[in-house]
Amino acid sequence: MEATKPFTLDEAQFDQSTYLGRVRHFLKAVNPLTLLYTKADVDKATALIASWKDNGSKCPEGVTDADLWAARDVRDAVVHPDTGEPIPMVFRMSAFVPVNIPVAGGMVLAKATAPQLFWQGVNQSYNSGFNYANRNATVDVKTSELAMSFGLAVTVACGSAFLGGKLAARIAANPAVGSTTKSIVSRVVPWFAVAAAGSFNALAMRYKEAIDGVEVRDHTGEVRGVSKKAGVNVLTQVVATRVVLPIPIILLPPFISDLVRAVGPVGRAIAASAGLGLAADLAVVAACLWVALPLAIAIFPQTASIGASSLEPEFRDLVGSDGVPVATFTCNKGL
Hints:
This protein is mainly alpha-helical. It has helices at 19-29, 39-54, 65-78, 93-109, 113-133, 143-172, 179-206, 208-212, 228-244, 246-262, 264-272, 274-297, and strands at 214-217, 223-227, 303-307, 328-332.
């Protein structure tokens, strides 16, 4: 049995320098049971962590490291790391999968242009709220800027879906294109549209992190200033996850559904019932979504580390409060 790591607020429970450690970290974050946490649960967890601090960063009597990690899980599932305020329930990481199951199902199953545009609009509207709620909140965003970003994000999403649908239809109608190519194109185009829209959505909702910069901290946890280069770095990582995330959500389900239908008895049962076929397709989408989210967002740590040499000149040759030269800075990447 794995020993419990000594509790700390300076780093995550699992090693964030490894992909497996980040996956384990985010698997806990996407647990939908955390949506059941109440304000009383958060207050209790916060008080327990405070008692650890008051005790000289040592476990109080009768409290174990496991208890403290569990308390931190409760707090982190609800509270934004920058603002210290609760994240709206529907935009928490643990709500992403339940909310997106019907949305992803709609995008995968929609064939005509109008339904595709509708589901793209719904998807990007939710993504806009999610991106904003889980942003690096050390950057101020005006309401007018937020409204403009939202409008651009949804417009580009619908435009990508519309143009992608037209392209797929044109290829499907071309007699010179083989059936295998047509099948592949019909499934790749929705992924491309979602990836492009998701990437632009992240940029539209969080572009000020690159323009105004984000707060960076040294190894002692002290804020040492605001860096535009750090903002560009974290935004690039966020966009990369938006490209990867739709692959198992949009690209894989149709192929998996075909494999399910190829199984004799199962395929015949699905063919005989439209309702069973729809249920099977949604089950495949839900399974892919649940697996995809932690795997995609674990590509990069939530707390980004950036070498001093990669930041602006004013961040080089700094010394921490402990007298140690600052070689690496960190900032909240967001989700």
